[in-house]
Design a protein that fits this description.
alpha/beta; Elongation Factor Tu (Ef-tu), domain 3; 2 domains; 6-stranded antiparallel β-barrel
Length: about 325
């Protein structure tokens, strides 16, 4: 996938079919738009292209209201590539870009430099200076140029509007099953394995401690997870929390016990996917009581991974999430 950081200086593939936005999470709603862009680009023999922004516009315009993002930039770009996008225009969002009018953005960027034959945007999309641009303006300008601008309807699932704000709320309450459905894949965080307190080995349950790059963690508690390192996925049980049994820690830890691994992973880059919540974090009266509960958690996780439809996740696929059981 080609990544363009300077639309005015770098060589670009054109003509195109285009969409634009932040696409935080690249959830089912975003995927619907991106699938349309890829499908139409292939039918027309042009390049499927995304214009996206970094940082999030609200981090520049109203930082006090800027949402924590569901994905790192790397994750977002990888998701575009997996869905068939061939070219991403990655624009650094600045006050100067914010001052570009909606009409200028369409004429100079979308239908001009990118020579877009068709433009697809989500329901209610607002763009340009003071967010004054709407689909009506895009349709008017596209028609004037003999092109097309299309608004894609919002996706709903089980009564929930598929939005990044909804997914953030679900994750903060530990509802990783439903978040997984809205995302179209398990929620994933990334980082490096770092040295922990060593208490896991003391209670005979060694853990890999992830220093997460992502800004959003699921609610405190215990989860069935998959951890990826050294190009493979390994089943595990993950605790997110403050270690209350050991007096508490002001820092949030992400500790994963790998079910079938006995090697050394310290310092390795890793990804962690959340499949199912087992329980909330709690304080135990003794280490023995904690050890007993961890054994129960591990047994429940092993049962989960014996489900025949879970096995596909141990491969390379990020999509096809309907194959996962609910519990």
């Amino acid at each position: 996938m080609r990544i363009i950081r300077d639309l005015w200086q770098e060589a670009i593939a054109r003509p195109t079919v285009v969409t634009f936005g932040v696409f935080d999470g690249v959830h089912l709603g975003h995927q619907q738009i991106l699938h349309m862009v890829v499908t139409r680009a292939r039918e027309l023999g042009v390049t499927p292209t995304v214009i996206t922004f970094d940082p999030h516009p609200r981090q520049v315009l109203r930082p006090e209201t800027a949402p924590p993002l569901l994905q790192t930039l790397e994750q977002r770009l990888e998701a575009f590539a997996e869905l068939g996008i061939e070219q991403v225009v990655l624009l650094r969002f600045t006050q100067a870009l914010a001052a570009v009018s909606a009409e200028e953005f369409l004429l100079a960027y979308v239908f001009g430099r990118l020579d877009a034959r068709e433009l697809y945007v989500g329901k209610g999309a607002a763009f340009g200076r003071d967010r004054q641009g709407r689909i009506e303006l895009a349709r008017e300008i596209a028609a004037r140029l003999g092109r097309q601008a299309v608004e894609i309807e919002e996706v709903t699932l089980r009564g929930h509007r598929v939005r990044a704000t909804t997914i953030r709320r679900l994750l903060r309450t530990g509802r990783v099953n439903l978040a997984r459905r809205l995302l179209g894949r398990p929620y994933e965080i990334r980082g490096r394995i770092v040295l922990g307190s060593g208490r896991g080995r003391e209670i005979l349950v060694p853990t890999a401690n992830l220093h997460a790059e992502n800004l959003i963690l699921p609610a405190m508690g215990v989860y069935v997870t998959l951890m990826r390192f050294a190009d493979r996925w390994y089943p595990g049980v993950t605790n997110i929390g403050h270690r209350p049994t050991f007096g508490g820690d002001p820092r949030v830890s992400v500790e994963t016990h790998l079910l079938d691994w006995e090697g050394e992973v310290l310092g390795a880059p890793a990804a962690l996917r959340f499949l199912r919540r087992l329980r909330s974090e709690q304080r135990f009266e003794s280490v023995d009581a904690l050890r007993t509960q961890i054994a129960r958690d591990i047994a429940r996780a092993r049962r989960y991974f014996t489900h025949p439809r879970v096995r596909f996740l141990l491969g390379e696929s990020s999509w096809g999430i309907d194959a996962l059981p609910e519990g």
